[in-house]
Structures are given as C-alpha cells and as structure tokens.
C-alpha cells in the first residue's frame, strides 16, 4: 500500500511539474508552421509597409515563413475577422488599427466579431498622426486658408478617406464640427486609392497617415498642411500641428498593432510580443519607419490594452455626440 501511495504521489508531482512547464514548452515550440499576418488594407498602405518590414525581420527569428495576406474591405473588418475566427494558436495575426477595433462597436449595430471577446491585443507596432492634405491646385497654403476656403464652398467640398469609420473619416468629421464647415465623405478601400484621388483632383482633401501621401507630395500634386498630433513628430517636423493652427481638440493618432484570436496561450502572446519588440528596436526598422512618417512604439500587451480602452472611450463619446451610424 505504501509503495502504491509513493508511486501515486510521484505521478502527481510529475503531472504538476508538467503543467508548470507547459506554457514555456508551448512558447518554445511556437511557431510550428508558417505565420500569417493579415493586413486589412491594400498593398502600399501604411499597414502593408509595417507588416512587410516586420515579416522580413521575424522570419529569421522564428525559423518559419511569415506571410503577409492583404484583405482590405468593410473598413478593415474583413481582415480582422479572419484573425478573430482563426485557430487560437498565434499562427494567424491581424495588423489592426483604430477603425475595426476601437471605433466599429460604436458605429455598427452588428459586427462579424466582438473585439473585446474574440481578439487579444499582442503588441502595438506604430502610432502616427493623421495628416491634413489637399490637392496642390487649391488656393490654400495653411489650415486657416483651408477652413476659410471650405466655408466659402458652402458644402461643395469632398474629402477622401481609407474607409467608412476609419480614423481618417472620423478625424475629418471632428474637424468639420470644430471648424464649422460641411463636406461630402468619399470613402475608398485603403489609403493608396484615397491619396490618389486627392492627387488627381477627384477629392479636394483628406486626412490620413503620411506613407501613401508622400509620393504625391514629392510629385507636387498633394500639399500637406498639418498633423493631428499634440506635438510635431520627429518624422514630420516641418508640418505644424492642428493645435498650433487653433484647433487643439483635433488630436487624432492612428495606431496599429498585432492581434490574435482569443484563447491563444499567454506564453505564445508573450513570445510574439517580445520578438516584435526586438524587431521594433532594430535600427534599420526604425529608419525605414521614420522615412515613412511612422513611429515605432512596442511595449507590453497590457500597455496596448490600456491604450485601446482609452481610445474607445474617447472616440466612442465623439461618435455618439456626432450621431454617426454606418449601418442604419
């Protein structure tokens, strides 16, 4: 009897030890096959640039291919939904942003996923201000000029965005309310076509992050007027902020970060977070981001979750006050 009790005790101790080691083992074994980063935006967008730069760094660190899968549509919800419904093992990630994560629950009565229930924030990748930009042929040089010109147009102004409910859409809606002018929203499926519309004169103005605008700025077809940051970012120091132009309420940062399906083991989340933070601190990555007007952030998953909660609280109030609904 005593031998049986000793054997049972030993097996119990081994089982408990195995349970304690399981998270570490699962993290060490991850990834066991190629990792996919779903980008809910088209090629050439800021999200696409971020994902491809990170994928190039992470494939060697992880010893597996890291595939970038562009799935634009539905204001980013199409691509994010793929990650929400993927197996909870960390092999499918989505590079999410404000629109389909923090804004959508206040804009839509029905969504294909619940961000709080179906997704886990892994790591914030970048944060950058939106830039107010216009077609270079407009008789406008400053924010003050733009507001005066917009008011004189008496509503006959249109602006492009990278989709319904995007940070670009809501930032312009916020500015219209603060500055007191009217305009027509023309949504596109991502920032490259939205920027192209301004360059071609199909749209008068836009708010978006810098990467898709820069080629058109260099060609002389688009003029950037101001950023929506509280302070001038290092990569866009030549541009004034909207606060400097008299609109301190129009602060709007477009953040990006990796998400994966709820239920993914914490050890896997921690490994991805640590490896992405290492990549974000790489000098070549930082230089590439800086050239595109992007700022690497990083930090813990908990840091990212706190920012998400604060962003949703702030913009939820703005959306509700403005009465914006997209599925009525």
Any descriptors?
328 residues, five-stranded mixed β-sheet, alpha/beta, D-Maltodextrin-Binding Protein, domain 2, 2 domains, globular, 12 helices
Describe this structure in words.
- There is one protein chain.
- Helices cover 46% and strands 18% of the residues.
- With 328 residues, the protein is α/β, with parallel strands linked by helices.
- The chain has two domains: 33-126 and 254-322, 3-Layer(aba) Sandwich (D-Maltodextrin-Binding Protein, domain 2); 131-236, Periplasmic binding protein-like II (D-Maltodextrin-Binding Protein, domain 2, 3-Layer(aba) Sandwich).
- Strands 2-1-3-10-4 form a five-stranded mixed beta sheet, with helices on both faces. A five-stranded mixed beta sheet has the order 7-6-8-5-9.
- β6, α7 and β7 (184-187) form a beta-alpha-beta unit.
- α2 crosses α10.
- The protein is globular.
- 45% of the residues are buried.
- Mean pLDDT is 90; it is low at 12-18 and 20-25.
CATH-level-2 architecture of the largest domain: 3-Layer(aba) Sandwich
What is the CATH class name of the largest domain?
Alpha Beta
Terminal Cα separation, in Å?
72 Å
Strand content: 15-25%
Strand order of the largest sheet: 2-1-3-10-4
In total, how many beta strands?
10
Structural class: alpha/beta
Short characterization:
With 328 residues, the chain is of the alpha/beta class.
Topology overview:
Layout: H1 2-29, E1 35-39, H2 46-62, E2 66-70, H3 77-84, E3 92-97, H4 98-107, H5 115-118, E4 119-129, E5 131-135, H6 143-153, E6 158-161, H7 167-179, E7 184-187, H8 191-200, E8 205-208, H9 214-218, E9 222-227, E10 253-261, H10 266-280, H11 283-291, H12 301-322
Parallel strand pairs: 1-2, 1-3, 6-7, 6-8
Antiparallel strand pairs: 3-10, 4-10, 5-8, 5-9
Helix pairs in contact: 1-10, 2-10, 4-12
């Amino acid at each position: 009897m005593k031998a049986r009790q000793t054997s049972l005790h030993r097996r119990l101790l081994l089982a408990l030890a195995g349970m304690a080691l399981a998270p570490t083992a699962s993290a060490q074994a991850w990834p066991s096959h190629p990792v996919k980063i779903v980008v809910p935006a088209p090629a050439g967008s800021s999200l696409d640039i971020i994902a491809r730069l990170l994928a190039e760094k992470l494939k060697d660190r992880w010893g597996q291919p890291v595939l970038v899968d562009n799935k634009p549509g539905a204001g980013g919800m199409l691509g994010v939904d793929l990650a929400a419904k993927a197996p909870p093992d960390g092999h499918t990630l989505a590079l999410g942003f404000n629109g389909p994560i923090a804004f959508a629950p206040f804009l839509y009565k029905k969504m294909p996923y619940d961000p709080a229930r179906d997704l886990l924030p892994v790591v914030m990748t970048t944060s950058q201000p939106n830039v107010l930009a216009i077609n270079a042929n407009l008789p406008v040089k400053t924010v003050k000029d733009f507001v005066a010109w917009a008011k004189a147009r008496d509503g006959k102004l249109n602006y492009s965005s990278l989709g319904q409910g995007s940070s670009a859409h809501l930032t312009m809606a916020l500015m219209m309310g603060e500055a007191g002018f009217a305009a027509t929203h023309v949504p596109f499926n991502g920032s490259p076509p939205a920027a192209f519309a301004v360059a071609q004169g199909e749209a008068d103005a836009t708010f978006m992050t810098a990467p898709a605008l820069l080629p058109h700025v260099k060609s002389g077809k688009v003029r950037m007027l101001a950023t929506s940051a509280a302070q001038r970012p290092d990569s866009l120091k030549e541009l004034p902020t909207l606060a400097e132009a008299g609109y301190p309420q129009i602060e709007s940062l477009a953040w990006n970060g990796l998400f994966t399906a709820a239920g993914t083991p914490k050890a896997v989340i921690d490994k991805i977070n640590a490896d992405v933070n290492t990549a974000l601190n790489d000098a070549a990555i930082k230089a590439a981001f800086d050239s595109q007007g992007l700022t690497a952030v990083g930090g813990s998953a908990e840091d990212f979750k706190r920012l998400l909660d604060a962003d949703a609280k702030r913009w939820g109030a703005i959306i509700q006050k403005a009465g914006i609904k997209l599925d009525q």
